[in-house]
Every structure is written in structure tokens, then in C-alpha cells.
Amino acid sequence: MDVPCVAVARQHGEAARSALAEADALDDDHEIAVEDGTIYIPVSDPDAATDAVAALDGDSELTTRDLPTRRGVRTPADILGFEPSLERIGDIVVIDEDDPDRAAAIADAVIESDLPVRSVLNRASKIKGECRVRDWEVVAVDEEAAADSDLTPTETVHREYGHEFLLDLAAVYFSPRLATERHRVVEQISADEQVLDMFAGVGPFAIPAASRGAELVAVDLNETAVEYCRENARRNNVDDAVTAIAGDVRDVGDDYHGWADRLVMNLPHSANEFLATAVALAGEECVIHYYDIQHEDDSFGPGIDAIRDAAEPAYDVRVETEHVVRSYAPHELNVCLDVRLTKPDDESG
Question: Is this entry keyworded Transferase (predicted)?
Fold first, then answer.
């Protein structure tokens, strides 16, 4: 079966494999192959894989290759006889099943399989409240793995593009599906930028940005998320560059009036309500990453209009990127606008 893989010279294989593992980009379901001095390492996320090996010694190439299924790895599908819908966050597997018997069967299969899993959670509510958290049912726990950990069944360490994030799914909002999007934004950030993340959560934007040499202010209404953000800044050795603040960004904005070179506005259902604050935070020139959810017929227009209404004429507004992040619901898209605000020249001068 042809699968995406990274091809590198054999002598660089272990370094490449380690970098891919740290970026959570390894495909554990297929075997690594070696041929004519080249090692072919299967990957689960081609974009993350490309970035993970970019800085390594030696040439690397993203390609596809017919690789055998890994022998000896027992998957939940092997046990169940069908492919269940699963999402992995650190060593937690998340399912979304209304039928408790089916949920229990899937959870038992996950624990029995060879996946490195400590607990299986079933979504028990929709995202709710100002802090965007949900209820969870702990369906199964691997007792041996739990005995070796001091974390609760809903708490885990998620690794993403070389960074790690401690978080509790029962107390904070976090989506691993946005990893590629977060990386897209972080790659635009330069050293010495002043970046303000208006809805920072546990720090998945802020901490990688700080690792690039930026100064970060991370604000979130959820006090628990802010505590995790501070801990994650320490874990990733950027605590000197990250100021994490618990509170409504509209209330703390006065302390950073005109400060930001870049703003992250990842609150897609209601970011428009915070645009006046964003404009107040913006410096002489500022890039805003504005997230929105709109109908596919006009997924960017409402956000552009809202930004122009808030920023003009105090700023010249230039839309640099109209980017579809993912499908959100039937006929609805989660999108991002990268918009540059620039103070116009003083006409009297």
C-alpha cells in the first residue's frame, strides 16, 4: 500500500525518526523500509513531517512508497472487526458514541490494543460556556499505565511540532485538529515581535511563538487554562518570554494599548465582538489572525467587513490571506483571515 513517507540517507535515519516522533508525525501502522542506502519512514502528517526534518543534516524528501503493514501491532479495528472513529490527544483516546454499549466495546478494544493509551473518554456534552469546555465520561482506564502516571484520566501531555502541552480536557478547551493551522501562523512570526494571543488557552499558539524569539502576552478567561499555560511555558523553556494573564481581554487591554505587532483571535464564533479591543491593542503596524465560522457561500466577506468597520479609517486594512482551516459543519467553514493593519501617513506632514 502506498503511504506518505520521508526518505533520508540511512545514516540520518535515527535522527529523522526521532524528529518525526517528537512532532507526532510518525505512522505507527506501517513498517520502515531500507533500500539502496535510503531509509523510508512512514508518516501520518506530511506537513508536520516536512517541517520536522527540515533542519536535520542531509537531504530529505517527502514521497510515497508501498510499505507493509506493521506486524505485531494489534489495533482496535483488529479486535472490533470495524474501524472506529477515534481521536488521540497525548495518551488519551477520545470517542463520540451515543450508544453506551458501543462506547464500552470500543473503549475495551482500545485498551486491549497496542496503542499507547492510558484512558478512553467519551464526549458527554457539546462545548459549552464562556470557557468552551465539555463534559466527559471516562469509559476505560489502562490500570498499568495509570499506575505509572500522576495525571488524572482526563489530563494528558500532548506533543505538537516539538513542543509539549500539559492539559486537562475536563477543564480547558483544546483541539489537536488545529495543529497544522497553529504551525502555519507560528511560522510567520519573527524574533522580537510583540504578540498578543487574545484567547490563549493552554498556550498552543503562544508557546511556539515564544520559541521563535517573540515576546508573548497570553490572555484567557479560563483561570485553569492560564495556569496550564504558565506551566507549559516552563516545560518548553519560554517562561521568561510569556506573560499569561487570566481575565477578559477587554478588561486587560488598556495595559497593552498600541503594543501588539501581531494578534491571534482564535474565538471563531464571536471574535467579531472583540475587534474594537484588537484595534486598540494594535501598534503602528499589526497583523491580525482572525478566525471565523461562516457559510461556504461567503466565508470571508463578513469577517473582512467586520475588520474594516472596526479599524478604518484609523488603519489602512490589507487582507493578506484568506485561508480555509477546515470544514466545520455542513455548508459551514472554519476560516482564518490574515489581515495587516497599518497606520496611514500623517497627511498634514
Answer: yes
